[in-house]
Amino acid sequence: MEPAAGAVAGVEELRVENLAKRFGGLRVLEGISFALAPGDLLGVIGPNGAGKTTLINVITGRTPPSGGRILLGGQDITGRPTHAVSRLGVVRSFQQTNTFKAASVRENVSRALRFSGGAGPQGWARVAPLLDAFGLAPRLGEQSDKLPYGLQKMLGLTLAYAANPKVLLLDEPAAGLERSERTRVDEFVRHVRACGCSVLIVEHDMDLVRRLCPRIIVLDAGVVLAEGPPAEVLARQDVIAAYVGADAAGDEAA
Amino acid sequence: MEARSPSRWGAQEWAAVAMFLAVLAVPWATDDLLVQSIVNRVLIGAMAALSVFIMLRMDLLSFATPAFMALGGYAAVLLTMHGVTEVLLIVPASFLVPALVALPLGALVLRLRGVYFVLVTFVLTEILQLVLFMTPRLTGGADGLAGFPAPTLLGTELSDARSVLALAAAMALLAAVITAALTAHFRQHFAAIEENEVLAESLGLVVWRYKAMGFVVAAGIAGMAGFSLGNMLLTVHPTSFGAQQAVDTIVYAIIGGRGSILGPIAGASLLVTVSDFLGNQGQYAQGLFGLLLILVTLVARGGIAGAVAALARRLRAPRAAAGPAAAAPEAARGGA
């Protein structure tokens, strides 16, 4: 497959080539290729079980691929352990709220900065705008699992950004958020892109995808079903059949 | 905005070290052999429980403590039998031998989590006990090793009851200092692994490195406890290092409180003393441990140390509206 539009050859940050993942006889991902330029944003959608989270797991080294390559700034990072991939600049967020539950907001951020090698005033200065924007700044002393769910989720995103990523992989950042809270995800994505960070976003909220993503890929049963601007892709009959129809109904119910 | 320096010792670390410093005076404060014997066993139990505590800081429940105790104990005793009696050599050896064994072992077992780690460490203890029984030429087999020369300090023999206790107290002090230094220096790292290992790793923490470090140090501290036990009993024997001892040390750490270094010390002090008073009715001690364990699990997850910390916080801020309610969950983890 050709590299996706938007990634200019030579300056791309993340490049995924022909990625495959099989669990025994089960094909979870097959022939996945795309590229992200610095500051680029790619949406990944698809029905449950399409392989979206597995894609993030494979890129971040949680589980090794069965085939294909992952390049970061031209460097092959395929199969490296999670901490090494993270230190090189590919950091993920998680679907469920993911913080250090017993620790305060301050300790959470401090750990993210320290573990990624960025402890110190510069690190704090980098995340301060996000802490302010999400209303976390006045709650630094609070235990993270005592925060409202929406704030825990935003803290999780802030931690991922605190780890100083070049590429952020967001796994359903809006899941579980109230509609009114979802604009915070927009704010987050805009902020990190403005800082030169590339973003891959796996999301079920179609409004958010349409709003944010200049281009998307649709995964179905582990393969890329469609790719392009959301308006175009989401209008395709095969995409609607595979995904949008079912989820649009589910989305309304939620 | 930044959190406090990660490596700073808290009140609990200082208190733990101060307690063992004070115990150094006990051999000279009393000639009562019963008291000396109980204190000696408390010190050994506390050392073993500190070893368990280190692993619990990373949410790993280790049954391998007796195996490392055996390695340390047999290594030290074998050294004395081969003419090396200087404690300045055999104490480090009792630490280093199990620590060096733990290093490659850790590469195998530290991949495991939860119940699988528990099971594999349990099996390690069983296997080592079997090895001790099966190697009579080296370890005395079912007879164990006895009649070995007393350790010496710069040529002075440490064979009387007072010296034996003083040596145990010195080793326990060393174990407490090492444990405090390790757990305070890596407090945030260990806590992150305990609370959310997957997140810590994805933020760039090299989790296996900290687990390996903890495992190696925990093994070394268990080894000193093993030597201390052999030195007190004047014998090392496979039955001293079985699964039952693993259960006991875990019970000390959990009933005492897994959230604070004072927990394992409090647990060992209380439970060793109580089981001594129950004397011949040893089975009652086991029953009592079981009951206490249920009690701690149900009402005081932070164990004795956690409950005391919660109480102290409650007394300190009796009128703060949110005080006790907010303090309770934190205290349940030992107020770390």
Write the layout of secondary structure elements.
The complex is a heterodimer of chains A (254) and B (336).
Chain A: E1 14-23, E2 26-36, E3 41-45, H1 52-59, E4 67-72, E5 75-76, H2 82-88, E6 90-92, H3 105-115, H4 121-133, H5 149-162, E7 167-171, H6 183-194, E8 198-202, H7 206-212, E9 215-220, E10 223-228, H8 230-233, H9 237-253
Parallel strand pairs in A: 3-8, 3-9, 6-7, 7-8
Antiparallel strand pairs in A: 1-2, 1-4, 4-5, 9-10
Helix pairs in contact in A: 3-5, 4-5, 5-6
Chain B: H1 11-23, H2 26-29, H3 33-56, H4 65-81, H5 87-109, H6 114-134, H7 136-139, E1 145-146, E2 152-153, E3 156-157, H8 161-185, H9 187-202, H10 207-233, E4 235-236, H11 243-256, H12 262-277, H13 282-299, H14 303-316, H15 323-332
Antiparallel strand pairs in B: 1-4, 2-3
Helix pairs in contact in B: 1-8, 3-8, 3-10, 3-11, 3-12, 4-5, 4-6, 4-10, 5-10, 8-10, 11-12, 11-13, 11-14, 12-13, 12-14, 14-15
Walkthrough of the structure:
The complex is a heterodimer of chains A (254) and B (336). Chain A is α/β, with parallel strands linked by helices. Chain A folds into two domains: 1-89 and 165-254, Rossmann fold; 98-163, no CATH class. Chain A has helices at residues 52-59, 82-88, 105-115, 121-133, 149-162, 183-194, 206-212, 230-233, 237-253; strands spanning 14-23, 26-36, 41-45, 67-72, 75-76, 90-92, 167-171, 198-202, 215-220, 223-228. In chain A, the strands form two sheets. Chain A has a six-stranded mixed beta sheet, sandwiched between helices. In chain A, strands 2-1-4-5 form a four-stranded antiparallel beta sheet, covered by helices on one side. In chain A, helix 3 packs parallel to helix 5 (149-162), helix 4 packs antiparallel against helix 5 and helix 5 (149-162) packs parallel to helix 6 (183-194). Chain A is globular and about 50 Å long. Chain A starts with 13 loop residues before the first strand and ends with a helix. Chain B has 336 residues and is mostly helical. Chain B has a domain at 11-240. Chain B has helices at residues 11-23, 26-29, 33-56, 65-81, 87-109, 114-134, 136-139, 161-185, 187-202, 207-233, 243-256, 262-277, 282-299, 303-316, 323-332, and strands at residues 145-146, 152-153, 156-157, 235-236. In chain B, the strands form two sheets. A two-stranded antiparallel sheet of chain B has the order 1-4. In chain B, strand 2 (152-153) and strand 3 form a beta hairpin. Chain B is globular. Chains A and B meet through helix 2, helix 3, helix 4 and helix 5 of A and helix 9 of B. Chain A: InterPro entries: AAA+_ATPase (IPR003593), ABC_AA/LPS_Transport (IPR051120), ABC_transporter-like_ATP-bd (IPR003439), BCA_ABC_TP_C (IPR032823), P-loop_NTPase (IPR027417). Chain A: This is ABC transporter ATP-binding protein. Chain A: Residues 14-246 form the ABC transporter domain. Chain A: Keywords: ATP-binding, Nucleotide-binding, Transport.
